[in-house]
Amino acid sequence: MKRREKQIIERAERVKRRERQRNYSDKDDDFFDSLPDSLLIHILSYLPTRDSLITSTLSRRWRHLWTLIPFDFFKSNDLPTAVVVNLNQGSAVNTMDFHPSQQTFLLAGTNIGDITIWEVGRRERLVSQNFNVWDVEACSMALQALLASDYTASVNRVMWSPDGALFGVAYLKHIVQIYSYHGGNDLQNHLEIDVHVGKVSDLGLSHPNRQLCIITCGEDKNIKVWDIVTGNKLYTFEGHEAPVYSVCPHHEKNFILSVNINGKIRAWLYDNMGSRVVYDAPGQSCMTMAYSADRTRLFSCGTSEEGESYLAVWNQNKILGHGRCYILTTIAAEGGLPASPCIRFNKEGILLTVSTRENGIKILANADGLQLLRSIENCAVDNSRG
């Protein structure tokens, strides 16, 4: 009888313990649910990469929080030097861009007009799209004539919007296409514009006056700004004496920098009043421009007709210093690279993508990048088993 009573008492105590644990767990859930995203992201920043990624399985709210964790490039162990992924694109890659928040989503454009979105962690081709003009009749007669003789167009530039919901594609022939993308294979046509006479050299996406716009430049020596919703032209900037090679809009301040093939750099405000300043790139050479992460410095680089390469750093419209480019380090990348490969870092600087001579893409990683890719692989395996 005493043994029976003892068992009943022990069973009752176990039930009470489980109930207390359940109550504490519910309180913890309520506590974390009450915290703002900014504080949760700050907490996640102290976790190892794998642990912060695993939190994406907790609930819908947690799914993308880990992608917003700030990353300090200089705390990363080293530059990405280890080849960890090889992808077969199938045609020569001209341009690539990593997604601004989905760290392993890579957008690629090729010499035959194909665009592809890769999930490099799973080596999966999420989206593949061949060159196609959506509305030929709406195009200029010049473009229609070109398409009638040769219905192909190389991709010159691809670029994600700042929030990653849209991306733009600039083609060799006249047009820019904007797609909306919401993950998986959910790719939708958004906007198609016949923007320039001849080649579209470059495009940018920016928020002048808090309105997302497309900035384009091309062989016709002009820079143009377009409403991304309606496709209406908002501004045309004229003044370059040679075809414009590259544009670089500032994402916070309302101005655009552009450079032509002769290395003449101009700055424009959104007012159709002409360029405010004009600079000559060092060595009269400039191929592209990019801002530093804090948007305080502008980098320009290029190679002159004499074959000399230059790198310039600009600050508040004043040149800080320039000179010839010197090799800081070399990465073999296991060979197979063309003479001028297309390269791109992801936002955190832990992955580096480079095009190959055999129509492929190599992904290089440092220790942090390798950990990230392995985490994604492990999550994919766990999901397949579940």
Helix-strand blueprint:
Elements: H1 2-33, H2 37-44, H3 49-54, E1 82-88, E2 93-98, E3 105-110, E4 115-119, E5 124-129, H4 141-149, E6 155-160, E7 166-171, E8 175-181, E9 187-194, E10 200-206, E11 213-218, E12 223-227, E13 233-237, E14 244-249, E15 255-260, E16 264-269, E17 275-280, E18 288-291, E19 297-303, E20 309-315, E21 318-324, E22 343-345, E23 351-355, E24 360-365, H5 367-385
Antiparallel strand pairs: 1-24, 2-3, 3-4, 4-5, 6-7, 7-8, 8-9, 10-11, 11-12, 12-13, 14-15, 15-16, 16-17, 18-19, 19-20, 20-21, 22-23, 23-24
What do these coordinates show?
The protein is an alpha+beta fold and 386 residues long. It has helices at 2-33, 37-44, 49-54, 141-149, 367-385; strands at residues 82-88, 93-98, 105-110, 115-119, 124-129, 155-160, 166-171, 175-181, 187-194, 200-206, 213-218, 223-227, 233-237, 244-249, 255-260, 264-269, 275-280, 288-291, 297-303, 309-315, 318-324, 343-345, 351-355, 360-365. A hairpin with a 6-residue loop joins strand 10 and strand 11. The longest helix is centred in the first third of the chain and has 32 residues, at 2-33. The chain is elongated. The two termini are 47 Å apart. The relative contact order is 0.13. Mean pLDDT is 81; it is low at 24-28 and 73-77.
